[in-house]
Amino acid sequence: MILTGPEITTAARDGRLRIAPFEPGQVNPNSYNVRLGPTLLTYTEEVIDAHRPNPTREFEIGNDGFVLQPGQLYLGHTVEEVGSDTFVPLLFGRSSVGRLGLFVEITAPIGDLGFHGQWTLMLSPTRPLRVYRGMKIGQIMFFLSVGPVDLYSGKYQAALGPQPSGYWRDRPGTEAAAR
User: Fold this and answer.
1) Can you tell me the distance from the alpha carbon of 29 to that of 3, in angstroms, rounded to the nearest whole number?
2) What is the value of pTM for the model shown?
3) Domain ranges, ordered by start, for the chain
């Protein structure tokens, strides 16, 4: 079951889900709009290696915005810290942003029960596109979970700002994979 807008508001107020800051005007009929935070990351190497950490470059989105270029993956983040120990969140790009040619979060929309933090956004433009910090870029829906709950306690917990891939930490033999 998906939460309706009024139930999202109620759950945010009674603590069953956390959205900070919470803005009532960002509640939709069955989702909550999230905004683009001020920081972007890009990988700096020509080849990204899944078995090691990859260097990144950080950009701040200024008052005049920032032009995203096609063929480049940008890691952004939500302004809002979102999470729940009760509801499963799913984040998708807003249709109005997709109509500008920007793919948002197309490979990993599901959040884990127990994750609380800013969401990293995978941004891929089809053509040059100027984006602005604080623009409504995505929407999160919340679904009721059924069954025993094992809360998330992984490497991205309490994330602030965009997080590069930690996939390399999951490799067998690494200290993080042993945990």
Assistant:
1) 9
2) 0.91
3) 5-44+56-146
